[in-house]
Amino acid sequence: MSAAVGIIMGSQSDWETMRHAAETLDQLGVSHEVKVVSAHRTPDRLVQYANGARGRGLKVIIAGAGGAAHLPGMAAAMTSLPVLGVPVKSKALHGVDSLLSIVQMPGGVPVGTLAIGKPGAINAALLAAAILSLADEALAGRLEAWRLAQTEAVAEAPE
Ligand code: RP5
């Protein structure tokens, strides 16, 4: 069976951030695949990946990139699957460059843009799971349980 979520990232260096998306999907029991696909260094790989995504059975794409972060937008240009963009924190501009590169898409080609860094990677996975849960009651239950566990883990007073 093919993966439901495709996690792609522009560089090996993005994995430290994007592994949080993969780990969150693992916790929720959502099948996923992980690949390095660079809009700039491996453009042919990107074209092949995005054009073939729906046909291979993927339902949601999570794309993380930093700096001139064109990966999510270019993926969204080539597929009508939901694309969630994670701005990776860059060294030079702390991810503000990544955020602005991803968020400011032209009308007609949407990318759901998350927060910079680890919180964005986690939330991209949760959002992907929420999208999939619309047609998967068991996953909806696991998502509710995940949220409940998070709530219960918050102490009333600091230790
Ligand atoms: C982007 O350039 C990648 O998404 C990464 O965040 C950034 C830096 O890449 P490396 O130089 O570390 O490979 O394309």
UniProtKB/TrEMBL annotation:
The record's annotation in PANTHER family points to: PHOSPHORIBOSYLAMINOIMIDAZOLE CARBOXYLASE, PHOSPHORIBOSYLAMINOIMIDAZOLE CARBOXYLASE CATALYTIC SUBUNIT
* Keywords for the protein's UniProt record, in alphabetical order: Isomerase, Lyase, Purine biosynthesis
Cross-referenced Gene3D superfamilies, in alphabetical order?
A: 3.40.50.1970
Q: In which pathway does it act?
A: Purine metabolism; IMP biosynthesis via de novo pathway; 5-amino-1-(5-phospho-D-ribosyl)imidazole-4-carboxylate from 5-amino-1-(5-phospho-D-ribosyl)imidazole (N5-CAIR route): step 2/2
Q: Please state every residue range assigned to the domain named PurE.
A: 3-154
Q: What catalytic activity does the UniProt entry give for this protein?
A: 5-carboxyamino-1-(5-phospho-D-ribosyl)imidazole + H(+) = 5-amino-1-(5-phospho-D-ribosyl)imidazole-4-carboxylate
Would you identify the family this protein belongs to, as annotated? Answer: Belongs to the AIR carboxylase family. Class I subfamily.
Organism ancestry: Bacteria, Pseudomonadati, Pseudomonadota, Alphaproteobacteria, Sphingomonadales
Which domain of life does the protein's organism represent? Bacteria
Indicate which residues the UniProt annotation says bind substrate. Answer: S11, D14, R41
Q: What does this protein do?
A: Catalyzes the conversion of N5-carboxyaminoimidazole ribonucleotide (N5-CAIR) to 4-carboxy-5-aminoimidazole ribonucleotide (CAIR).
EC number(s) recorded for this UniProt protein = 5.4.99.18
Q: Does the keyword Lyase apply?
A: yes
What the entry lists under InterPro entries is as follows: PurE_ClassI, PurE_dom, PurE_prokaryotes
Q: Which Pfam families match?
A: AIRC
Protein name as catalogued: N5-carboxyaminoimidazole ribonucleotide mutase
* Single Gene Ontology MF annotation: phosphoribosylaminoimidazole carboxylase activity
